[in-house]
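re: ur question from yesterday

yeah so i grabbed the chain u mentioned. its 436 aa long if i counted rite. heres the sequnce exactly as i have it in my notes:
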Amino acid sequence: MKITMIGTGYVGLVTGTCLAEFGHHVTCVDKIEDKIERLKNGEIPIYEPGLDTLVNKNVTEGRLCFTTNIAEAIPEAEAIFIAVGTPSSRRGDGYADLTYIYEASKEIAGYLRGYTVIVDKSTVPVGTARQVARIIRKENPTADFDVASNPEFLREGAAIADFMRPDRVVVGVESAKAGQVMQEIYKPLYLIDTPIVRTTIETAELTKYAANAFLAVKISFINEIANVCESVGADVTALAKAIGMDGRIGGKFLHPGPGYGGSCFPKDTLALMRIVQEHGEHMRIVEAAIEVNAAQKARMVKKIRDMLGGSEAGKTIAVLGLTFKPETDDMRDAPAATILPALLEKGARIRAHDPKGMEEAKKYLPAGIEYVEDAYEACGNADAVVLMTEWNQYRALDLDRIIEIMKQPVFVDLRNVYEPEKMKSLGFHYTAVGRR
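ran it thru and got these structure tokens back, copy pasting raw so excuse formatting
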């Protein structure tokens, strides 16, 4: 099939590349000329393991191309995926900003030729697909099209595997014709018995928000339990393992830490709250999860401060990891973006290292942070080490070397990577999250 992908951000680029790997002919469109030129030259603007190889393979084999010319990409397309950004509104009210969705819809409308399925791939509030259809009909009353909702469930750092072997694919359609097109697009997944959940458009739109909200609640729950563990002298690691063995609960997302972040959970939980409020409903559990997440980040600041004797002023803090999770360069709503400015404000000197995220971090973090190319360089003469993100290369640090080069042997493990008894035996003043 001939498919056009509007937007070459994280979702658009991964989705377009994987659809090309399925055998479809995919044209990715973006207005940012520099990004398209970089992609044409084989440069990938985001870090996602394996994506560069897959992009270059499909470009070489003629199934994937990039352009800024939407007029060339639309007329021949049998399906057009809209995968542009839907950030939180700049007003700070939690609503999703749908400006890019609606602009893309207007641009698409004038170039439609023959029957086309317009697929909302971006995470959008309930009712957006109806608005997209209304805009296209207004701009081009004779257009022959259907709108479908096909939310993405890609984990950064594992997006290619998630697309190629997903837990399920959710497709919201109204017509049998649109359903057939979507079935053809995902035909390779039928061959490996992937569940395809076909539902109404509104249900599909809400499913994405419901999934992310549930996971955010799960993270906030284990973080609150971790805080209780600290108060009563229990160990949250053993507790999470025990409750995760219950088939009704499951062990995923039961890892305590400095709070959730990234491009999805923070904005999607807020957007869901606005959806339910608009309809006169309540979701107090999700509201509480949002509050717990904010409090958890503040608690981490206090944890670091307490380990430094009650004040970070004049102290050098080595920070290992800046991105919201490993295997990505994404800094959106990363805990580091909340925690580090609070420490800087109180006079801390911060020396930071991250395997992939330092260039992005400079866009999100205030001036004054020193970025270094080596984890051990960050730790040299530091008053404390803060393990912020659990990159694999931080899981087997030379701890003897670190304690030797530090000014004070303070180690704040916000990801529970190391064992307290081992750290104590090495001479560290060690603290983690939810552990004695």
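noticed a couple things. The chain has two domains: 2-199, 213-431. also Residues 201-232 form the longest helix (32 residues).
anyway ttyl
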